[in-house]
Amino acid sequence: MTRKDSHAKTVCITGTGSYLPEKVLTNFDLEKMVETTDEWIRTRTGIRERHIAQNGEGTCLMAAQSALRALRSADMSPEEVEIIIVGTFTPDMLLPNTACLVQDRIGAENALCFDLSAACSGFVYGLEVARGLILGSGYRNALVIGVEKLSAVTDWRDRNTCVLFGDGGGAAVLEATDKSGRRGLLASAMGADGSLADLLNIPGGGSRMGLTRHAIDDRQIYIKMAGNEVFKHAVRCMCNAGQKALERSGLTMDDVNWVIPHQANARIVEAVASRLGNSPHKFCVNLERVGNISAASVPVALDEFVRRGKIKRGDTVLLVAFGGGFTWGAMVLEWGY
Ligand SMILES: CC(C)(COP(=O)(O)OP(=O)(O)OC[C@H]1O[C@@H](n2cnc3c(N)ncnc32)[C@H](O)[C@@H]1OP(=O)(O)O)[C@@H](O)C(=O)NCCC(=O)NCCS
């Protein structure tokens, strides 16, 4: 089938995979590094531990491992992949993009490859872009990856931020189908507000403030965050995006079986759950074990809950993410292919 002949009406997720580095950093380990306590971290964030990449474990490696697992579960070979999108703001290198490195590593020589920079919303943005390419341009499939090595851009002397972040990667295979009865990705709501960029950013190391001695000594090459402000925007934007995506799909929270939220803080997740129809039991949460892994957050939780048999064929799932930019995105889908 040539691209022009493709009349796919539906795009489904046909496989998921994830990868977490072996090394675990607990709150008790952090007590030895900065002035904090396990109790403060648990009660203010819900996090107990996070995975941290070790020497040689880069963003590409984590992305490739999760991609191979997703391809296996989709029963697809790397050569069949037509698009690779990597959502990340911690690429192995500024040039080339991480998607090209993943292509080479897994042997997906027939894929076009690009990175997508939307911070924690990178994976959900990636699903939206891939769906558009499949439905609009006739590609048959895409590999969408959310991956982050946040330990590389975390200021390990700043207790305000270093207790929050971890490393990991998650991936999903998207495929076109015209089989009747398959509903797949149903509706989405994406957005951004660049006027709030100052609340969450890495000021140095880019082209505005290069990797100068000053940038390094002044610790400008690490994540800076106004936590309290970000918290409020995260709750508001995730609720609005979730509601809008549901409206567009013609569904309500009553129809939703599972919500996979971006996992930044258990209190954010609780606030979103209570505003989206008091539904905490529908929320898939793993942040206690992984912390905030940015673009990897949604796909890792999705993969874990699918593999544990919680998310089943026919279930309606709402994905909702929020991150630096600010960016946000929600997607409603029916699970199964
Ligand atoms: C970062 C965050 C956990 C802080 O929680 P908070 O309840 O807002 O806490 P505050 O910022 O008000 O700080 C409260 C106090 O705890 C202190 N504190 C901060 N980090 C601490 C730590 N690790 N251990 C102990 N005390 C800490 C602060 O210094 C402050 O002390 P002060 O009152 O004497 O100044 C929370 O704001 C958050 O999760 N924000 C959103 C994070 C997020 O979503 N990020 C990414 C978006 S994708």
Nutshell version of this structure?
This protein is α/β, with parallel strands linked by helices. The protein contains eleven helices and 13 strands. The two termini are 20 Å apart.
Describe the structure in your own words.
- The protein has 337 residues and is α/β, with parallel strands linked by helices.
- It has two domains: 3-177, Thiolase/Chalcone synthase (Peroxisomal Thiolase, Chain A, domain 1, 3-Layer(aba) Sandwich), CATH 3.40.47; 185-334, 3-Layer(aba) Sandwich (Peroxisomal Thiolase, Chain A, domain 1), CATH 3.40.47.
- It is built from eleven helices and 13 strands.
- The protein has helices at 27-31, 38-45, 59-74, 98-106, 122-137, 159-162, 213-217, 227-249, 266-275, 287-290, 297-307, and strands at 10-19, 24-26, 49-51, 83-87, 112-116, 141-149, 167-177, 185-192, 200-201, 224-225, 258-261, 316-323, 327-334.
- It has a five-stranded mixed beta sheet, with helices on both faces. A four-stranded mixed beta sheet has the order 8-13-12-11, with helices on both faces.
- Helix 3 packs across helix 4 and helix 8 runs parallel beside helix 9 (266-275).
- The longest helix has 23 residues, at 227-249.
- It is globular and about 60 Å long.
- The site of coenzyme A (COA) has 21 residues, from helix 2, helix 6, helix 8 and strand 12.
- Residues 36, 40-41, 44-45, 120, 159-160, 163, 225, 227-228, 230-231, 234, 264-265, 268, 292, 322-323 line the site of coenzyme A.
